[in-house]
Design brief:
alpha/beta, Nucleotidyltransferase, domain 5, 3 domains, binds zinc ion
Amino acid sequence: MLGVETGVVIERVDVDEDAGEIVVGCRLRKGARRRCGRCQKRCPGYDNGEGRRRWRALDAGTIKVFIEADAPRVSCREHGVTVAAVPWARHDTGHTRAFDDQVAWLVTHTSKTAVVELMRIAWRTVGAIAGRVVDDARAARDPFDGLTRIGIDEISFRRGHKYLMVVVDHDTGRLVWAAEGHDRKTLQKFFDLLGPERCAKIRLVSADAAEWIAACALDACEHATLCLDPFHIVRWATQALDVVRRWVWNVLRRLGVHGQAAQLKNCRYALWKNPEDLTDRQQAKLAWIARHNHSLYRAYLLKEQLRLVFQHRGDTAVAMLDAWLAWARRSRIPAFVALYHRIKRHRAGIIASVTHGMSNGLTESVNTKLRLLTRIAYGFRSTDNLIALCLLDRGGHCPPLPGRN
Ligand SMILES: [Zn+2]
């Protein structure tokens, strides 16, 4: 029931009906005593620490359960004076391992309110638990093992005041690393952690066109080819399309054609969405644009055609990209002529990505999920806990529910 298998003697069980608590008094068997809380090695004892201590365990029905035991300190040769290890909990925490694992499982499977209400803990405690569960999982298994194709990106949160740099494994679809910041120094930390041997195994790096990201990655990984993530390229086209829409709207307004201007203002989503996802109303808007505004409709077709390029692979995709470049160059739409120059500059990176079959859907879905997590993590004590939540959810570090593995 307590998630403890060996090394523990249960001395007494007290039921406090008024407080609605069960307190289980334990002591450690000889072999489990005086081990360093960090490395589990046997060490000489140091002192009694803060005496008896309690750990919150999983509830028994609706009743809160606590384990109570001595928490002496030991003197480890490597880690100095530290609280001795107990088999039921992670180092220096107030919850049992099973409790932590259940919270970590819940936070990736259900809502914030559900976790807080069910487990009867504060939201910031959930953040701290996510932190130690992830630390544990990453210490047990090398999170960078087998990395050959990585995607690097940045995500803004707190309304654009803060940034996360994230690294995704294109083969597993997992988030492998994240840190706060968005500069070369932050990203360099990842390559330092990776070390020269594993850096040499990186074959492909996808990055949006922030030149310093690409430069930093290629400096660190000598055998890597840079790929431009199709997801970002399509986003450039969507941005260019939006520039055209606003420009047309302003012109119409200045000419006094208010009816048409108002129509255009509401058609942003019709232009943005993939045609297969359009509602009937949005399709009608698009048809209206096709009839009344030829440059805007051509801009829309240019965006769509570019998106189609990335649904193909290899030579077909390359031929389609070059046809697109020729079309954009002659389009006489300034935003798309500018886009032509930008894409032409990055042609090699784009071709690498369509040739090697980098999946844009992957980065896109990871990014969407991470953005959502940055909002959910609001209220955590630190960005480290936010990163832990991201790694728990997208990094494959979520533990199984206690007792089911
Ligand atoms: Zn130690």
